[in-house]
Design a protein that fits this description.
155 residues; alpha+beta; Aminopeptidase; eight-stranded mixed β-sheet; 3 helices
Length: 155
């Protein structure tokens, strides 16, 4: 008999609404994937998480943060919402959670910043994935922290 997984609870929070538990879980997941799994030594804490109207999308399964991304304030980014730090816990990959996360992110963008373009620096091999959500490449491929990335925009 397999153990039934608890449902995923989605939260979109302004940075001022984040609890200590939220911040710790987000930084822990980001570090586990971006620094350890992807072997990138970089400064994840970049002073953007708490800037302006930045919001954070958190997906909780019980007490475990299984997916996360941040939406950077367009007033700080040339009038474009910037989606970043898109991460899914390894245990939740292949479940469709990433697609649900993108849907929630785009809903949040439409609610908080209607009609503004959305930008992301995506890992280059994910162009097709983000293309399903209307993102198109707007830059050449470049190296970021040793991984090929491409700028992508959704109007």
């Amino acid at each position: 008999m397999t153990e039934q997984q608890s449902p995923v609870t989605w939260q979109i929070k302004h940075h001022s609404e984040l609890s200590v538990t939220d911040v710790y879980a987000a930084l822990k997941l980001r570090s586990a994937v971006f620094v350890v799994e992807q072997n990138c030594v970089y400064t994840d804490i970049d002073d953007l998480d708490m800037l302006g109207e930045t919001r954070h999308l958190l997906a909780w399964q019980g007490d475990t943060l299984v997916a996360y991304l941040r939406l950077l304030d367009p007033a700080q980014n040339d009038s474009s919402v910037v989606i970043g730090r898109v991460v899914t816990d390894p245990s939740a990959r292949g479940t469709g959670l990433g697609h649900k996360m993108m849907a929630h992110a785009l809903e949040a963008c439409a609610e908080h910043w209607p009609e503004l373009p959305i930008y992301m620096s995506a890992q280059a091999h994910l162009q097709g994935y983000y293309g399903r959500y209307g993102f198109v490449a707007c830059s050449d491929i470049y190296l970021e922290d040793g991984i090929e990335h491409v700028g992508m925009r959704r109007l």
